[in-house]
Amino acid sequence: MTVQPRFHLAFPVNDLEAARHFYGELLGCPQGREAKGEWIDFDLYGHQIVAHYAPEECGGATANTVDGQKVPVRHFGLLLDWPVWESLADRLKTAGALFLIEPYVRFKGEAGEQGTFFVLDPAGNALEFKSFRDEAQIFATG
């Protein structure tokens, strides 16, 4: 799945080395430039994300109930091909990542059927990773 344009997202972290481990090693994002003690760029599947050291901006996530689960209002993530989504979920489980919502399939057999899971980075930023077996269902309404 190749999408243009790519997005850029900057987000706060309270520990740059923990962010380097989570994004670089656990998620497998190649590292780009950095300003020591200030920020680190990562390549998240072709998108530029930047972890900025800003501990005062971390925490305090508000959640809404979706499918009986508490979904953080502020989150970001990706739509991945199904095998990539499954592989990432397995890698995160094996590594003992903190899942807010374990991998599962929503809307099974309905419009918009999707695999999804939420994980927290060490600073408390929520990430959602989704997958659709049929990409035509991404914006399906019924």
UniProtKB/TrEMBL annotation:
Any Pfam family: Glyoxalase
InterPro entries in UniProt: Glyas_Bleomycin-R_OHBP_Dase (IPR029068), Glyas_Fos-R_dOase_dom (IPR004360), VOC_core (IPR037523)
Ranges where the VOC domain occurs: 5-132
Taxonomy, superkingdom: Bacteria
Protein name: VOC family protein
Organism (species): Hyphobacterium marinum
